Amino acid sequence: MKLINITAIFVICLLAVSGCARKQPRTFQETRDMMATYITITVDAQSEEEAKRAIDAGFAEIKRLAGIFSIWSEGTELSRINAQAADHAVKVSPEVLELAKRALEVAQMTDGAFDPTVGPLVRLWSVTKRKVPPTPEEISKARELVDYKNIVIEGDTIRFLKKGIVFDPGGIAKGYTSDRVVAVLKGLGIKSGIVASAGDIKTFGGGLRKTPWLVGIQHPREKGVAATAEMADMAISTSGDYERYFEYEGKRYHHIIDTKTGYPAEGIRGLSVLHKDGVMCDGLSTGLLALGPERARKKMEELGLAGVIIDAAGAIYVSPAARGMVKVEGER
After folding, report:
1. Interatomic CA distance for residues 43 and 247, integer angstroms
2. Domains (range + CATH), the chain
3. What pLDDT sits at residue 23?
């Protein structure tokens, strides 16, 4: 098996392959700085040339999608939508349409805990820049622009019901992108590999040894992993309070916002979701963490989701659907 450790910057540890026959597949990987993070593509291929062609195509797809989904760069499709959709319905590309549909689906599944309009609150908190929390008045004002129900999809158009609404796919775009990259790799004949982006990993095939990939879930307070998951043709996304945050008067304020309060979510240090679709993992891990431990556990069980919750006391919960895949470190 291969061990992938979910950390701020991914390091994929692959088993060395020696003494192979000439046509025995080998494992190749490359990491690039894209979408404001490090993304690693790993493939099993017959030759270096085949691997390079596939990996280059995978990164080209990431670049293409980033050029569509960015809300910070002028001239991108999403920045145009955000500028115009409150005035009139805007025709959108198939990629934006699919992403928006999945974002609203996850919002409904999580009772609004995942909300693709949360951008005003995220920008207000700016946890990598702030030293002190914003005022209650600032939070209240930002919350007025957070409600996914203000995004309306009609055919191949999107419109907003309120001025100031912004569709921000940051909580779901990396998962969607991983799904698309895997489709590109498969289309080029790659049988097994991994796309790893920040807290999101998408696996396909079983690797050289035809066994599941072994993925490590980062411990939110200690070095090393808290649990491992055996995965093949699955994705996993981990959200937590330990990568982007600041501390003020002894309290940690992180980047995942509870949209009901406008403050960073409390009660969970780390939460992982396993699903066949990376886009669902990405949005659900964020939304479930925002629900808090008890509601997140109930929602996992209600939806039949495979997941892991590490609460504020460090206790680890593995959902029933994940118990055949996940092993907590230290447990036999």
Report:
1. 40
2. 3-15+23-66+172-328 (3.10.520.10), 69-169 (1.10.3980.10)
3. 66
